[in-house]
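Q: What does the assembly look like in three dimensions?
Context provided by user:
Components: two
Sequences:
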Amino acid sequence: MAEMNVLEAVREAMREEMLRDERVFVLGEDVGVRGGVFLATDGFVDQFGTERVIDTPIAESSIAGMALGAAMHGMRPIAEIQFADFIWPVFNQIVGEAARARYGSNGKLSVPLVLRAPEGGGVRGALYHSQSAEAYFCHAPGLKVVTPATPYDAKGLLKSAIRDDDPVIFLEHKRTYRLVRGEVPDSEYTLPIGKADVKRAGDDVSVFTYGLMVHHCLEAAQTLEGEGINAEIVDLRTLRPLDTEAVLESAMKTGKALVVHEDNKVGGIGGEVAAIIAEDAFEYLDAPVRRLAGPEVPAMPFSPPLEALYMLNSDKIADAIRSLAAY
Amino acid sequence: MIIELPQVGESVTEGTIVQWLKQVGDSVERYDPLVEVLTDKVSMEVPSPVTGVITEILAMEGETLPMGAPIASIQTADASNTDSDSVAPNDSSYTNQPVAPSDTTPIVPDAQHSVSRIGVLLKDVAPVGPTGAGNVVVPAPDDAPAPQSKGAGSRRRRRYSPAVQRLADEHRIDLQQVEGTGINGRVTRKDVLAFIESQADAAVQAPAMPSPATPISDMPAASVPATSPQESADEERLPLSPVRRVIAANMKRSVSEIPSAWSITEVDVSGLARRRDALKDEFMRREGINLTYLHFVIKAVAESLRENPLLNSSWGDDAIILKRRINIGIAVAAPDGLVVPVLRDADTLSVAGIAVRASELTARARQGGLTIEDMQSGTFTLNNTGALGSVASQPIINYPQGNHPQAAILTTEAVVKRAVVIEDAIAIRAMMNVCLTFDHRIMDGAEASAFTNAVKRRLEAITDDTGIY
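A: Here is the predicted structure of the complete assembly.
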């Protein structure tokens, strides 16, 4: 079994799918000759040629528009938005059109595109290289939103996203790219979209999280184990559709739920998870559902101390779990 | 300031907290209803004596406390704020702890972490610029504590989470028995689970019979072990309403303390029946009230009590306390349970006056609108069990909590037409039994019979000429 980081897992997923299915191609800014700004498509242009690895102008709306048109004509485009911070121009094509095409055409059209974007902070990226984009897309029926945390999940979920007949927003936390390493099977596998994964079982507090925060939560859980607090860490993995069953199962088991995400709290995924629990696990709750999330400021500060203040870490998470466990 | 259970009426010594109408943290205006309190079977809303914010609730719902006991604490606006629980603003400052930059940090997993599919987050690797390619060092911040959730530190007493309530219901647990280990002693789900487990263990170890030294009747209800779900599969437990609890306590106190005796007396009420039939339509027209047998009986009882003062007394352990006033309690079936409003100075009223007062009291009793004064100072109790169809009953002497017991209680039974022998002839007469339970410490059968015979004599003396005004 190979050991790799998240970036390598993403690269291998795309390479395998391009080898498997001729309809799969990549497009985006600098994905060709440069191999991607993070080197996600490193070597692809040599392996697959410029017709399947397309460098585009710096115009995200056209990247999304081209992907949308190609997908409607039966291709399986993987469009890369260099940073999720620049994803906003795709809104009309993705939310306005791609998400509604199947419904609006009474099933005649489908849009099997994947929109990949690195997101998240903690990398000294400041205002324009640190944002979290998931909440905006999660609101749109017709879209799937995937946020992997580990190399194994990233590869298996990206392959499923490419094979999916409907549009998938695939948000990779850029801090996990090189910092998270893990085992990935040598053999072919995919992972189902819409399934959460219990990364650590526990019976005191359920922690629902995704992306980079999965790792901080696991660290916090490790610390708390020494204090006799047994936290269950549920990696949501897919934010739309949310794995309601897994959320309820864990919340009912522990009676205490904390949602952790780097994205700011208001209108974030935490609210949705909390609402699901409140609606269907109320009688099992032993404490208020709590959210630990990024602060309500417009963007990531550049100053290192302020960035550290903005970002969640395992200590902040451990405090929140501790407080809920004591409730 | 500390709020005390107020003195709400003479001779009321204690009250039961039925329901808090405000919770900790709520603002209250002076005179806002604060808490519902039950005394002598009347519940009333106690108003807040001050304007402020409730900082603590000291008396739990269901708790019975003496008058004057502290029940809550209210922070008034003008009081100093020194004992506030508020969390000071978090003043976390960062110290820069530069990490020496290395040239090219090799990206390898931490040796002590085993690598799995979950992956590991590499430590001490300074990222990295927007693309992760650079080598910028991030100073490590001080540990910033997570922001405190509002209310996390606020006091909560005996408020149960849905999980705790559901478990308590399923396993039939009295939560008052469970020790809380949560914040401020809150009972957590895990506390209940541990309690269930300990109960199961105890059930296995303990003998099935209670020890003979402890009569079952003396065991407080709360200490009776929760029955296991298997045992109670075909039973249903009705939780006690506060009124039910008070009735139960009063009945038990009366039966266990008073050596009572009982008698039944037949009364020929043919004259009364005729007189009542003759008057009732006119009375309804004039007074808007249904004139009943009971109103005549109250009059007869009041006069007979005057004649037999021992029946209008109380056992005072070292003395018999004779009551100068004749205040007759009338048992009424109210929606929540039996209540006994008191018709005061019944001996001073005419039958018509009794009818007006009694019908007003019973109407309010049925609507739950009685006041504490309505329930107090009774000296004798009358229960018209005949209205329920009974022809003989054995009443229990009224012994309200915090008071001396009354000396006796009388019931009037159903009026039934029967064949009776009068001077060697058989006649059809309207007959009614009256039943008396009396405190045998206070009197003997002679005095008791003198009283019931006096009642009988008066009721049988009613003729077509008897006035009611």
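Follow-up: The interface with chain A takes residues 92, 94, 96, 107, 109, 115-122, 125, 127-132, 134, 136, 138-141, 143-146, 148-149, 152, 161-166, 182-183, 186, 188-190 of chain B (CB under 8 Å).
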